[in-house]
TrEMBL record, chain A:
Cited PANTHER family: AMINO ACID IMPORT ATP-BINDING PROTEIN, L-CYSTINE IMPORT ATP-BINDING PROTEIN TCYN
Domain ABC transporter, residue spans: 2-239
Subcellular location: Cell membrane
Protein name: Amino acid ABC transporter ATP-binding protein
Pfam families the UniProt entry points to: ABC_tran
Domain of life per record: Bacteria
Keyword Membrane: yes
UniProt cross-references to InterPro entries, sorted A to Z: AAA+_ATPase, ABC_ATPase_HisP-typ, ABC_transporter-like_ATP-bd, ABC_transporter-like_CS, MetN_ABC_transporter-like, P-loop_NTPase
SUPFAM superfamilies for the chain: P-loop containing nucleoside triphosphate hydrolases
CDD domains: ABC_HisP_GlnQ
From TrEMBL, chain B:
KW Translocase (keyword) present: no
Topology class, membrane: Multi-pass membrane protein
Cellular compartments annotated: Cell membrane
The ABC transmembrane type-1 domain, residue ranges: 18-216
InterPro entries (alphabetical): AA_ABC_transptr_permease_3TM, ArtM/GltK/GlnP/TcyL/YhdX-like, MetI-like, MetI-like_sf
PANTHER family: L-CYSTINE TRANSPORT SYSTEM PERMEASE PROTEIN TCYL, MEMBRANE COMPONENT OF AMINO ACID ABC TRANSPORTER
Family matches, as SUPFAM superfamilies: MetI-like
Name by which UniProt lists this protein: Amino acid ABC transporter permease
Main location as per UniProt: membrane
Amino acid sequence: MLKIEGLRKSYDGNEILKGISVDVSKGDVISIIGPSGSGKTTLLRNMTTLEQADGGHIQFADVDKDFQKLSSKDIQTIRRNVGFVFQNYNLFNNKTALQNITEGLIVARKVNKSEAKKIALEALERVGLSDRQNHYPSQLSGGQQQRVGIARAVALNPKVIFFDEPTSALDPELVGEVLKVMRDLAESGTTMVVVTHQMNFARNVSNKVIFMADGHIVEQGSPESIFEHPSEKRTQEFLTDILANV
Amino acid sequence: MENIKLIINFLGQLLPAINITLIVSVSSIVLGSLLGLGLAAAKQSESAILRVFASIYVSVIRATPSIIMIFVVYYGMPLFFSAWFHINIEGWNRMYFVIIALTLLFSAPVSEIMRSAYGSVSKGQTEAGLMVGMTPFQTFYRIVLPQAFVVALPNFANSVINLMKEGALTFTIGVVDMVAKAQMIVANNSGGYAWQTYCALALIYWVISLAIDKGVTLVEKSYQAKRKTIAA
């Protein structure tokens, strides 16, 4: 459904992504793990055209082109078929929880207002925040903001939802409520690509794990194969380090 | 008591000329804001030439005293127009020259205010707008601009009040505004009642400034109130 090949990205001559290929099928829940600075977030931002990749090919939703040849119409097509959940939530500060969700529906998708409101309320219900619909982001806790952020992405009914370290900015006691929402989404068949440091999520919820280091995909496979029998030394070291700190 | 009566009497004579002050101020505010917006955009632009041009423009304008700007425009522009475009603009209403001078003056602080207000809205807001499928323009107009506006408001109001006061120099090129009117009244009274006359004039400016100030506070409050409508 979504196929990326040979994605490259450099900043000031530093190559951050050295030719990444990712294949996402419908219903996949893919966790991308790896040490800080390995390029996980950059990969997500380039796959979704938030940043302009230096090279590589994308095949997704009527678009089948090299990243550098994407027209603004192609970019719009890609963006309208993905959802994105940010590390810092990035809720629209001048909009209520409900408006945060209806905004994209009404303005970008041309859904009429009452229909948009209905969809938004359903999405809020799904993340357990129906009673917070008229609150502004500044009146919500981090966990609640992130759940609205997830509802905003879900309501657009995209082909894939990308999560960029969705729990990394949260206080530890708020992580659980967000992970629960993500787990529910995964179980209901939502296609998800998640950059995460939550190894439990990667291991128990996803059906595929990608381990990245230094701009490469070192290893990928089922959670069992990555966590139980990693074949690469780099993966073993990373897992030993991170599991020792849990 | 006698003085108060005189001041009220002078107020009555000065007020009819207020429309000149208002036309000059409002026109310069609108045009200056648009120019300022353009300059702010130029400063953010990818093109180094535009950025450098905008920076130089802003520093030159900011360093020009208002009265000199008005004279430069009034005496310089007709020469420039006849030499370059072969258009004679000497017959123009003199008010236009003041409006142009004040527009140029106003655009510099406005561009700085807008640039910093724009910078205060996090980049994540734009990214979130793009990722729900809005175009860059829709994102700017619906998400970034309303937030930047609230940030810019107090500084913008300050600049508006400054501009209005600088507008008191309009009389220097012979436009009959309130200041010119005050001078005429004093002259007609052979220099008598001068302080009462100017006191009346000052009162008018105080009231306008206060009104701007209060208006802005009200707008700010309404924005804050909107965020507090629901207590948990």
